[in-house]
Amino acid sequence: MSGLMIVHLGVAFLLLLLGWSIRHKKAYWLISGFNNRSDTEQQQLIQNGYPQKTGSWLLLTGMGLLILLPLSFTSFPYAFEVQFGFLLIFTLSGSIYLSKYELPAKRKRSYIIYSILFVIIVGFVLTLFLIGEKKSEFILKKTSFEITGMSGDEWSYSDITEVNLLNEMPTVTSKLNGFGTERVAKGSFKVEGYNRSILFIHKDGSTQVLHIEVDGKNIFINGENTEETKAWYKQLQSVTYK
């Protein structure tokens, strides 16, 4: 079982435990900010059904994650994105839904705040996903080469110290500052044998990978297929080792 599945299961069971404790054991103190309310406000919230609904929503979220877990054992390429998207949207929309059970004086403000947060957070995550999934272009210029997209930059040919065509991507040991899913790895990662590196890897693309050591940095990039990656390698060699 992968680490991602263990985290998935852990989050699901934690939500179920919290939901059960709040809904059936009346552990309302587990709800953020509930204990900071006055006794009068707490009683009003209980009468409105706010803590009970919060517990039910956590239970539904946990059950939803368990239902989606089998996707991880299939060949469906967007399993992680569906699971994460469900958790994100269900959690944020739940906050909007629960605002209707708030105290009348705070109900409208809560609804507006959570609605704005929903738009900002979902918009940001969706934008990040789309940028991360977009194919990086490898462009050779007169005195430099450029890799476009997330974490992309331009490097001079004169700063290149090594160019290799690898049969497979070396083992990635950890993510430092990048975008990583089951299909894409972009940004700064630690790579076995190369330490900190910049990756532009689409895992459903070419198994062969172009490695470039430039200006003290290790760059790994692959094309959509082996032919494209080989073509980049030959083109870069032709302008680097004249």
Written description of the protein model:
The protein is of the alpha+beta class and 242 residues long. Helices cover 48% and strands 22% of the residues. It contains six helices and nine strands. The strands form two sheets. A six-stranded mixed β-sheet has the order 4-8-9-7-6-5. Strands 1-2-3 form a three-stranded antiparallel β-sheet, with helices on one face. 19% of the residues are buried. The model has no long low-confidence stretch (mean pLDDT 91).
Q: Indicate the percent of residues in helices.
A: 40-55%
- Give Rg in angstroms: 24 Å
Largest sheet: 6 strands, mixed
Q: In what range is the share of β-strand residues?
A: 15-25%
> How far do the termini sit from each other?
49 Å
The shape, in one word, is elongated
Structural class: alpha+beta
Q: How many individual β-strands? A: 9
What is the N-to-C succession of helices and strands? Answer: HHHHHEEEEEEEEEH
* Poorly predicted tracts of residues: none
- Number of DSSP helical runs: 6
Lateral strand order in the biggest sheet? 4-8-9-7-6-5
Overall pLDDT, averaged?
Answer: 91
